[in-house]
Amino acid sequence: MKPTTIGFIGGGRITRIFLQGFQNKSVELKSIKVYDHNPDTLEALKTEFPNIERAESPADAAKTEVVVIAVHPPVVMEILEKISGTINEKTYVVSLAPKITISQITGKLKIANVIRMIPNATSLINRGYNPIAFHEAMLKKERKFIKKLLSPLGKTFQTQEYKLEGYAIVSGMLPTYFMFQWQELENIAQQTGLSPEEARKAIGSTLKRSVDLYFKSGLTPAEVMDLIPVKPISENEEEIKNTLNVKLTNLYNKIKP
Fold this sequence. Notes:
Blueprint: E1 5-9, H1 13-24, E2 31-35, H2 39-48, E3 53-54, H3 58-61, E4 66-69, H4 73-83, E5 92-95, H5 102-109, E6 114-117, E7 128-134, H6 140-150, E8 154-158, H7 164-172, H8 179-191, H9 196-216, H10 221-225, H11 237-255
Parallel strand pairs: 1-2, 1-4, 2-3, 4-5, 5-6, 7-8
Antiparallel strand pairs: 6-7
Helix pairs in contact: 4-5, 7-11, 8-9
């Protein structure tokens, strides 16, 4: 793939994840522009990735071949309004926000090369699980170009647009449901006498193997869970499941189009 120019509108967490993923794989780009309304955010990003160019406005960042909309849903339409006079029919616009549909985006921009993606934080280490949906009028070669551009971030796979918010709940945000528990287990492990290194290795290795056991053993969920006789927090399971159901269902209803 020939080097291309890319512009990010929004210089927060997900832009950092993209830039780190590209850097890890030595992705060759002609230029990278980033705009953020907060100059401190942009300065911090520039310190970490000196090769990026500061864009003076959303429209300035959109003067590229690929434009990544990396802002929260409430401001997406405002951003689209600001860049509508800059982009053209050859521009690729990739939105990372839930809720705002391809139809809404094309309604503002009047172009067909519109893509939506729900990125995963594991893209930082090039192991993302990133569902993507395309405008129905995009040509096969254009879709191939975008998939190849984003492939260094991990697994990028096409899905129906209506499923993206579901993927946001069960994939994009999934690590947040567990990471604080892993951290607490590290603390407990050290209290029992393990070193920090031993704690991280034991928990990390067991987690990876447990995922394989649950999803690849051929056993039912009940059979897998029955393999371990002692369940210290079983009395709290219903409370935890109820919390997941209430919180995540409510969130899904909030972010779906």
